[in-house]
C-alpha cells in the first residue's frame, strides 16, 4: 500500500470536513477498500474512517414504520438487530462474506462501492429504499447508476439507509464458490402496492429491477408466475464462472426460489 | 506516524504506526505477537483472525490506527491463566484438528467467537461459521469435530478419524 493519513472523526460533521481534504477517501469497514489499496489500485492521501461515528451506527424503526440503518452499521449487526424488524434484509446481511468480514463491513460502504456482485444493492433497490447522505436523500431507483457508479457526489457520505418493510421478502444468492460474492442474487419484496424484484451479480450495468417479473408477481405471487419469463443474456456479465446466457437463466431460477421461500 | 494505544491480551500496548500499518503488522512486528499468521493478505484465508472488542475480525484487513483504544485478543491470549491449553486448544490437540498448524490460530479464534454467540452449534453451523477460515491440510473434518467437542457435545458420530 502507498501510505496515507488516517482520520477518525467522531461526528458526521467532522467526517464531512475531513472529506474536504485533498484526495480524501471515506473508509467504511474496509473489507473491499483495504484489499484494493494493497493492490495499489487506489492512492488516496487520507482515509476518513467512518466506523467511530456513533450517530451512524445501529438499527431502529422510524415513526412511519421504516427500518433505518446507520451507514456505519456492520453486516453482522444488521443480521442480528434487523432480524425481527425486516427478516429478508437480515437474512441477506447474514450471508455476506464470512463472519469476520461481517463484523467489519458496513452497509454504507457496500452501497457506496456498488460492486456489481454485492448483495446490499439488491436489497436497497428491491425495497425501494432511501439512501440518506450528509447533504440529501436519494431514492434507490435514482441512486444506482451502473457498475461501481452511484449518484454520490465527491465527498458525500451515506449516513443512513431507510427501508420500507414489505409484507414478505427473500434473497436468494447463487454464490461464486471462490469469492462467495453473488454469481447471481435476486431480492424479491412484496408490498401492498406491488412486487419489486432486484437482481445483482448478473448485469454489466450493475444491479437492476426485473420489471417483467415484477408485473407477473404483482398479479400472481408464485414461482409459477415467473416460469415462462426469460431474460436476454446479451448485456449480462460473461466470465470464466458463467456466460451471460447462464446468468440470465440463473436469474429466473433464483427469482422462483426467492418467491417460494418468501411466500 | 500516529500514536496508537490498545489493550492486547489484557496488557496496555502502544506504538507509533504509519496510516497504512495493518493491525496484523502491528501485532506481529511491533508487539512480536507472531501467533497471528498472515496467510493470504487478501482477506480470504482467516489465519489472521483476532478479536477486537470481542468480535472476530481479520487483522490483515483492519488498520492499526482503527484499533486505537480497542481491546484486542490474539491467540497468545487464549491459554488458561496457568498456561495450560484452553478447552478449544485442547480439543484441537485431542481430535487432531491441525496438521501443519498455519491456519490454527485463526481457527481457534473463530471457534471461540462462534461458541461465545452459539454455545452448542450444530455441525452445519460450525462449517458455515468457518467459511472465512481456510485449511489446506485437514479437510476440515477434525477441526469441526474439535469445535463440537469443545462445546461439550458428543462427537463420536461425526465423520472421519
Question: In words, what does this structure look like?
Answer:
The complex is a heterodimer of chains A (263) and B (161). Chain A has helices at 12-18, 33-38, 75-81, 87-93, 99-102, 107-113, 120-127, 140-143, 211-219, 244-262, and strands at 5-7, 24-27, 46-49, 59-61, 67-70, 130-133, 137-139, 158-163, 168-175, 182-191, 194-200, 208-209. Chain A is α+β, with helices and mostly antiparallel strands. Chain A has a 5-stranded antiparallel beta sheet. In chain A, strands 9-10-11-12 form a 4-stranded antiparallel beta sheet, sandwiched between helices. In chain A, strands 1-3-2 form a 3-stranded parallel beta sheet, with no helix packed on it. Chain A starts with a strand and ends with a helix. Chain B folds into 2 domains: 2-76, Beta-grasp domain (Ubiquitin-like (UB roll)); 87-150, DNA polymerase, domain 1 (Orthogonal Bundle), CATH 1.10.150. Chain B has helices at residues 23-30, 87-94, 104-117, 123-129, 141-150; strands at residues 2-8, 11-17, 49-52, 55-58, 71-73. A 5-stranded mixed beta sheet of chain B has the order 2-1-5-3-4, sandwiched between helices. The longest helix of chain B is centred in the last third of the chain and has 14 residues, at 104-117. Classes of the chains: A alpha+beta (263), B alpha+beta (161).
Mean pLDDT of chain B: 95
Multimer state: heterodimer
Helix content of chain A: 25-40%
Largest sheet descriptor of chain B: 5 strands, mixed
Q: Given this structure, which CATH class of the largest domain in chain B is correct?
A: Alpha Beta
Distance between the termini of chain B: 51 Å
Spatial strand order of the main sheet of chain B: 2-1-5-3-4
CATH architecture of the largest domain in chain A: 2-Layer Sandwich
- Backbone shape of chain A: globular
Secondary structure category of chain A:
alpha+beta
Strand percent estimate of chain B = 15-25%
Amino acid at each position: 500500500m502507498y501510505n496515507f493519513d488516517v482520520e477518525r472523526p467522531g461526528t458526521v460533521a467532522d467526517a464531512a470536513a475531513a472529506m474536504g481534504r485533498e484526495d480524501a477517501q471515506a473508509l467504511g469497514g474496509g473489507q473491499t477498500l483495504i484489499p484494493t489499496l494493497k493492490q495499489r489500485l487506489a492512492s488516496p492521501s487520507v482515509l476518513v474512517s467512518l466506523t467511530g461515528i456513533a450517530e451512524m451506527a445501529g438499527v431502529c424503526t422510524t415513526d412511519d414504520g421504516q427500518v433505518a440503518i446507520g451507514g456505519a452499521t456492520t453486516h453482522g449487526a444488521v443480521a442480528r438487530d434487523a432480524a425481527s424488524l425486516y427478516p429478508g434484509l437480515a437474512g441477506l446481511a447474514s450471508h455476506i462474506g464470512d463472519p469476520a468480514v461481517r463484523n467489519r463491513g458496513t452497509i454504507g460502504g457496500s452501497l457506496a462501492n456498488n460492486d456489481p456482485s454485492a448483495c446490499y444493492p439488491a436489497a436497497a433497490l428491491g425495497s425501494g429504499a432511501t439512501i440518506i447522505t450528509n447533504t440529501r436523500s436519494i431514492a434507490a431507483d435514482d441512486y444506482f447508476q451502473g457498475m461501481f457508479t452511484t449518484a454520490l457526489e465527491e465527498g458525500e457520505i451515506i449516513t443512513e439507509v431507510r427501508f420500507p418493510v414489505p409484507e414478505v421478502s427473500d434473497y436468494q444468492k447463487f454464490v461464486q464458490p471462490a469469492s462467495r460474492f453473488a454469481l447471481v442474487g435476486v431480492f424479491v419484496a412484496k408490498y401492498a402496492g406491488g412486487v419489486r424484484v432486484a437482481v445483482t451479480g448478473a448485469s454489466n450495468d450493475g444491479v437492476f429491477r426485473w420489471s417483467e417479473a415484477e408485473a407477473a408477481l404483482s398479479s400472481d405471487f408464485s414461482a409459477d408466475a415467473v416460469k415462462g419469463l426469460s431474460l436476454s443474456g446479451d448485456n449480462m456479465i460473461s466470465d470464466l464462472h458463467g456466460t451471460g446466457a447462464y446468468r440470465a437463466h440463473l436469474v429466473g431460477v433464483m427469482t422462483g426460489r426467492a418467491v417460494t421461500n418468501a411466500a | 506516524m500516529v500514536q496508537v494505544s490498545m489493550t492486547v491480551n489484557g496488557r496496555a500496548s502502544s506504538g507509533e504506526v504509519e496510516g497504512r500499518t495493518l493491525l496484523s503488522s502491528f501485532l506481529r512486528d511491533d508487539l512480536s505477537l507472531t501467533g497471528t499468521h498472515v496467510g493470504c493478505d487478501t482477506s480470504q484465508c482467516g489465519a489472521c483472525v483476532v478479536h477486537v472488542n470481542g468480535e472476530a475480525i481479520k487483522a490483515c484487513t483492519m488498520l492499526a490506527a482503527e484499533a486505537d483504544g480497542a481491546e484486542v485478543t490474539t491467540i497468545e491470549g487464549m491459554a488458561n491463566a496457568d498456561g495450560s491449553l484452553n478447552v478449544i486448544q485442547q480439543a484441537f490437540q485431542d481430535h487432531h484438528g491441525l496438521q501443519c498448524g498455519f491456519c490454527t490460530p485463526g481457527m481457534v479464534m473463530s471457534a471461540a467467537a462462534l461458541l461465545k454467540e452459539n454455545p452448542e452449534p450444530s455441525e452445519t453451523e460450525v462449517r458455515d461459521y468457518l467459511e472465512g477460515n481456510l485449511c489446506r491440510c485437514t479437510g476440515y473434518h477434525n477441526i469441526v469435530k474439535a469445535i463440537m467437542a469443545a462445546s461439550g457435545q458428543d462427537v463420536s458420530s461425526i465423520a472421519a478419524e
